[in-house]
Write a structure and sequence with these properties.
By secondary structure, the chain is of the alpha+beta class. The protein has helices spanning about 5, 20-30, 50-60, 90-100, 115-125, 130-140, and strands at about 15, 35-40, 45-50, 100-105, 110-115.
Length: about 150
């Protein structure tokens, strides 16, 4: 079983450009009730990602100028990606070990979608054995999979 099945019913992920202001990105997240945006270069390549946590850390650091500073200044630039052909259990393990909740799906350097911990947990609930579901839920609710984005 691969991620293709999980991504079938997903809409295209939302993205912003590197020079988008932090305030504009936060507004998109608030309006769409999401906590994660891709940051794509003009050629469609991945520049980085920004999450609610990135914004909260920036605010907690006492920074201001959210209307004038760009998302590229607080973005996560070292982003792990996966492929549509990857096994959901392996992706879940990578996300749990890396302590992040969203992973871009890429093929040949182009973003094809984004998979979240919630997507994977719903998939495990439908398709996996009780043992696999228990492992996934235990990791998620113990906090192992939550910190970092």
């Amino acid at each position: 079983m691969s991620l293709s099945e999980i991504l079938e019913n997903h809409s295209d992920p939302l993205s912003v450009e590197p020079d988008t202001s932090i305030a504009a990105a936060a507004k998109i997240m608030a309006d769409r009730r999401i906590g994660f945006l891709l940051i794509l270069n003009s050629d469609g390549s991945l520049h980085g990602v920004i999450s609610e946590r990135d914004i909260v850390r920036d605010v907690a650091a006492g920074n201001d100028g959210f209307d004038s500073r760009s998302v590229s200044g607080i973005a996560t630039r070292s982003v792990q990606t996966c492929s549509r052909n990857d096994d959901p259990h392996q992706v879940f393990d990578r996300m749990t070990k890396g302590k992040f909740r969203h992973m871009p799906v890429a093929e040949d350097g182009r973003i094809q979608g984004v998979v979240s911990m919630s997507d994977l947990l719903r998939h495990f609930e439908k398709a996996s054995s009780p043992d696999a579901r228990a492992k996934a839920f235990q990791a998620f609710f113990s906090g192992d999979a939550v910190p970092g984005g």
